[in-house]
Model the fold of this input.
Amino acid sequence: MKEKFYVTTPIYYTNGQPHIGHAYTTVACDVLARWNRLQKKETFFLTGTDEHGAKIQKKAQEEGKDPQEFVDEIAEVFENLWKKDKLNISNDFFIRTTSSSHKAAVQKVLQTLFDNGSLYKGTYKGLYCTGCEQFKSENELVDGKCPDHGTLPEEMEEECYLMKMNRWQDLLIEKIQADEFQIRPERYKKEILSFLQSQKLEDVSISRKNLSWGIPLPFDKEHTTYVWIDAFLNYLTGLGWNGDVKNIPAMWPADLQVIGKDILRVHATIWLALLLNLEIELPKSFFVHGHILSGGRKMSKTLGNVIRVEDLLEKFGTDGTRYLLMSGGTFGEDLDLTMERMVEKYNADLANGLGNLVSRTIKLVGSNEFLKTKKIEIPKDLHGEPIKLFLNNFNLHGALECINDLVKAANKFIEENKPWELAKNNVEKFEEVMKKLVIDLYVISDLLIPFLPDTAEKIKTALETKKVEPLFQRVK
Ligand code: MSP
Done:
């Protein structure tokens, strides 16, 4: 059977408009999906929206809207942002947790968990952060507040159903240690291992009694499911799964689940324990990435340093935006973006670098009868080994730097050889120089496919038609 690659993004909360962090994770997964398709793997790429829970219900109320109407509007904005004329995301499906098929599957799973003894009724007392939709332990708080949201968690004591977690602690440690279940980058594997080795995993509350905006428990309709249980199951329902544990989709297990560092711990504990309780195979790996900062500080409306995806698209276009998001820093680390630096990078690498290389080369080719008609032999495997190594190791930024080095070298080659002069006084040398440049452009366009799919296509068309439109206009 063909090798498969199933990659997922987290599903995004529909309590507000999509932001640059969502765009970043999604573009990164898109690059990896496109890359794996090029490697001829049977690829499935899933993304979607997480639409239940207290936070969303509250937001809908504030806007005076019915929650379903509210999430329908926002989910549509997300879906539109991924379209070809916006961020050009190649997801194979878009899962919504308010879809009837997802809800039915979640209920089936809850019944299975209840029947197999993984759930029991009890009470849970703790501090709940609605921003995170999670209970927080004292030692996760800073000055009593949630460090991610800066808000005081609410004290809550409720009757609820709890899911057994503790029995999986040793097995999880073992699997993570042996890389049977991989967490990358390495430091996040260490972080999770030290967490699992230092404290007892507590059973988690999986239902809420006084929250109507959620999926009712099939065995106790007074309760609705905890939003994270509902959300995690998207990774299976997004493949068309109906909740029957005896009938798991062929694409499962996920080969790669990309998540931000803020949601690593819930994934590495609740999600994995949920699967173990259902006797479903664990995903193969998580890749954890950092957060986008702006000018060294967390992006926030109050600080006024929020970078809007729409503004990026307007200024830099689809491929320009994709390029800037992926080249802004090492995938896995936090990255610091400012509009000034992005403008500079866009002009240097795309308008002057790549754009200039393409337009100069094609114009010179078009001016020569021989090159216009002659078919140039193109090497078969254009994916250089270094790129393969970078992409297979999630070094997206490294791969782009490598491509950029090829662009710079080709531009330097033009300046050194001055083909416009050779065209007049040494046609033989001119053709030789130009053949090398044409091959370089084929190689570069091929390497660019996963990152800048449209640009890659345009370069190939330009090489075939010997005509060129400017690819990237300088911006201010
Ligand atoms: N709905 C949950 C995830 C459920 S997955 C079963 C959630 N949603 S979220 O919308 O708050 O954030 C989801 C993801 O968006 C984060 O994990 C991360 O991948 C990305 N980002 C959100 N803010 C970000 C930045 N500022 N920077 C980079 N990515 C960030 O958590």
Summary: The first helix runs from residue 20 to 38. Residues 28 and 326 are 7 Å apart (CA to CA). The mean pLDDT is 93.
